C-alpha cells in the first residue's frame, strides 16, 4: 500500500503499539502528554506530534483540519464516549473507532445487558440495575445468592467488581459486608444516573476476543488473556491490566477452536444488534471480555469499544500486517484483509510506579531509567505507557508506565522478560507481576472442568438456564 497520513489519538502503551504498526505511513498523533514511544514513531515517519485534550471533539477537529489525514485511529475509550470518532466523520475522514452512540456498548453495562437480552444473544448474564444505592444493598441482603456488583458505567477502563464467594448462599455476615460495598461503587457514577448493576456470578477462565469490523465484514483477531489483579498470583485490587498473553496461533491453550467460533458469533451478533438499536453501522473494534462458564460456555462479562490494554501489546506485534488491516478497515475494504500471524505466543508484563493502583498521586512523578538497546538485544519489545518525556527524563504519570513484550513458548518468553527487567529501574520501587504466562496449566485444568459442565448442560437443553433468575433478565 502507498504511504498514507494517519492521525492517531491516545497516549498509552496500546497507542505506542498502534503507532509502530502504522509506521509504514506518515504518523501524526494527539496525546495528553509526550509519550516517548509515540514521539519516536512520529519523528521517524515525518509526522507531527500534538499535545492537548484527546477527549475534546473541537480540539481534535482543529487538528484534523490542519493535518487532513487519510484516516484516523482512536486508541482509548474516553475519546469514543466524547464523540471524537464523530469529529472525523463530520470532516469526511474515515476512522477506526465507533461513534459515540455505538460506543455505549462499553460505556453503559446496563445498556449492554439490555441489548443482549432484547436480541437474545448467547452468553448473556441475568442482572438487576439500581439508581438507589439503599435498594441495591437491600437486594443483596434479601437475595443472599452469589452475585457480582459493578458500577453501571465505565470508570476509566478499570471498573470495580466485588464478587461473592463460591457458596451458593452467603452467611448473613457476608451479605451485610457485601452490601456495604455498594456505597463504594456508587462514588464512580453521576448522581442522576443508574449507579449499580448486580449480575449473577459466574466462574471460569477469562479471555478476550477482539473483532474488527467496517460495518459489513468482520475480522476476528487472536485471543488474549488479561491479568487484572495488581499483585502476584491474582490478588489485590483490580487494575487496567498487569499483563497479558496471546497464542499459540489464534487460540489460547485453554480455549478450543469451537469456543473461539462461538465467541466470534456472539460478538458479531452484538455488532448487528447495535446497528439495529442505534441505526448506525458499528465500525471499529468490538471486543468481548469473556469467560468460559458452566452456564453458557463462552459468556460475556463486558464489552470494549476499542482494543484492550495490555491485550493490544500481546496481539499487535504478532500480526505482521496490522497497520495494513487498519487501513483496509478505515476504507471499508476489510473483506480483503488476511492476517499474517506470528504463530508463537507472546507474553506482556506491565510495569507500574510505586503507589499504583491505590495511590496514583504517590505514583506520579517517579523517574524511570531504561536501557532500550539492551532490552532489544535480549529479544524483548518495550512499549511506553503512562510515562512522559520531560526534558531528557522519563517521568511516570501515575498509572502503568511500561509494557514489556516477549515471544516464545510461555516459559521461554517469561524468562526473557525476567532478563529484560534488569535494564529497567526507578528511583523508587516498581510494581509488576512475574507470574504472567506461568499459570497456563491451572487455566487448562479449570477449562476442562467447566467444559465438561457446560457441554452436559447443552446436551440436556439447559444451556444458559438458572433456577432463580427469570428468562427476561431479572429475578422472578
Give structural notes:
The chain has 16 helices and 25 strands. Helix 3 (57-67) packs across helix 5 (84-90) and helix 8 (133-143) runs antiparallel to helix 9 (172-186). The longest helix has 22 residues, at 257-278. It has 3 domains: 5-99, 3-Layer(aba) Sandwich (Rossmann fold); 126-200, 2-Layer Sandwich (Dna Ligase, domain 1); 206-431, ATP-grasp fold, B domain (D-amino Acid Aminotransferase, Chain A, domain 1), CATH 3.30.470. The strands form 6 sheets. Strands 12, 15, 18, 20, 23 and 25 form a 6-stranded antiparallel β-sheet that branches. Mean pLDDT is 91; it is low at 157-170.
Give keywords:
purine biosynthesis; 476 residues; alpha+beta; 16 helices; D-amino Acid Aminotransferase, Chain A, domain 1; Rossmann fold; Dna Ligase, domain 1
Entry summary:
Pathway: Purine metabolism; IMP biosynthesis via de novo pathway; N(1)-(5-phospho-D-ribosyl)glycinamide from 5-phospho-alpha-D-ribose 1-diphosphate: step 2/2. The chain is built from 16 helices and 25 strands. The protein is an alpha+beta fold and 476 residues long.
Amino acid at each position: 500500500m502507498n504511504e498514507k497520513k494517519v492521525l492517531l489519538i491516545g497516549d498509552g502503551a496500546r497507542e505506542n503499539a498502534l503507532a509502530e504498526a502504522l509506521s509504514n505511513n506518515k504518523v501524526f498523533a494527539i496525546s495528553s502528554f509526550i509519550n516517548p514511544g509515540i514521539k519516536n514513531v512520529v519523528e521517524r515517519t515525518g509526522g507531527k506530534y500534538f499535545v492537548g485534550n484527546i477527549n475534546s471533539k473541537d480540539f481534535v477537529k482543529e487538528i484534523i483540519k490542519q493535518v487532513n489525514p487519510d484516516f484516523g485511529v482512536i486508541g482509548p475509550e474516553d475519546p469514543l464516549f466524547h464523540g471524537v470518532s464523530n469529529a472525523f466523520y463530520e470532516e469526511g475522514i474515515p476512522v477506526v473507532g465507533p461513534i459515540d452512540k455505538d460506543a455505549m456498548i462499553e460505556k453503559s453495562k446496563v445498556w449492554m445487558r439490555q441489548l443482549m437480552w432484547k436480541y437474545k444473544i448467547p452468553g448473556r448474564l441475568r442482572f438487576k440495575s439500581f439508581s438507589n444505592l439503599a435498594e441495591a444493598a437491600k437486594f443483596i441482603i434479601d437475595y443472599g445468592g452469589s452475585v457480582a456488583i459493578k458500577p453501571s458505567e465505565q470508570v476509566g477502563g478499570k471498573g470495580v467488581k466485588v464478587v461473592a464467594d463460591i457458596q451458593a448462599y452467603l452467611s448473613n455476615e457476608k451479605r451485610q459486608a457485601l452490601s456495604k460495598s455498594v456505597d463504594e461503587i456508587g462514588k464512580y457514577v453521576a448522581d442522576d444516573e443508574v449507579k449499580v448493576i448486580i449480575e449473577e456470578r459466574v466462574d471460569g477462565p477469562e479471555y478476550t476476543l477482539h473483532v474488527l469490523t467496517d460495518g459489513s465484514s468482520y475480522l476476528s483477531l487472536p485471543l488474549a488473556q488479561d491479568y487484572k489483579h495488581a499483585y502476584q498470583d491474582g490478588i489485590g485490587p483490580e487494575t487496567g491490566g498487569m499483563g497479558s498473553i496471546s497464542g499459540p496461533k489464534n487460540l489460547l491453550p485453554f480455549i478450543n477452536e469451537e469456543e473461539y467460533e462461538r465467541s466470534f458469533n456472539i460478538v458479531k451478533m452484538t455488532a448487528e444488534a447495535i446497528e439495529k438499536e442505534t441505526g448506525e453501522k458499528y465500525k471499529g473494534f468490538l471486543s468481548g471480555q469473556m469467560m468460559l462458564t458452566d452456564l453458557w460456555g463462552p459468556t460475556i462479562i463486558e464489552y470494549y469499544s476499542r482494543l484492550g490494554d495490555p491485550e493490544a501489546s500481546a496481539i499487535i506485534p504478532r500480526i505482521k500486517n496490522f497497520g495494513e488491516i487498519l487501513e483496509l478497515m478505515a476504507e471499508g475494504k476489510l473483506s480483503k484483509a488476511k492476517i499474517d500471524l506470528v504463530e508463537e505466543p507472546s507474553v506482556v508484563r506491565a510495569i507500574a510506579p510505586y503507589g499504583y493502583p491505590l495511590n496514583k498521586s504517590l505514583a506520579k512523578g517517579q523517574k524511570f531509567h531504561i536501557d532500550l538497546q539492551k532490552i532489544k538485544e535480549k529479544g524483548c519489545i518495550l512499549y511506553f505507557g503512562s510515562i512522559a518525556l520531560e526534558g531528557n527524563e522519563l517521568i511516570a504519570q501515575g498509572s502503568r508506565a511500561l509494557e514489556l513484550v516477549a515471544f516464545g513458548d510461555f516459559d521461554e518468553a517469561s524468562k526473557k522478560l525476567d532478563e529484560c527487567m534488569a535494564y529497567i529501574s526507578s528511583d523508587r520501587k516498581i510494581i509488576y507481576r512475574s507470574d504472567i504466562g506461568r499459570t497456563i496449566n491451572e487455566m487448562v485444568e479449570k477449562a476442562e472442568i467447566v467444559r465438561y459442565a457446560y457441554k452436559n448442560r447443552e446436551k440436556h437443553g439447559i444451556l444458559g438456564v438458572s433456577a432463580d433468575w427469570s428468562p427476561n433478565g431479572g429475578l422472578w
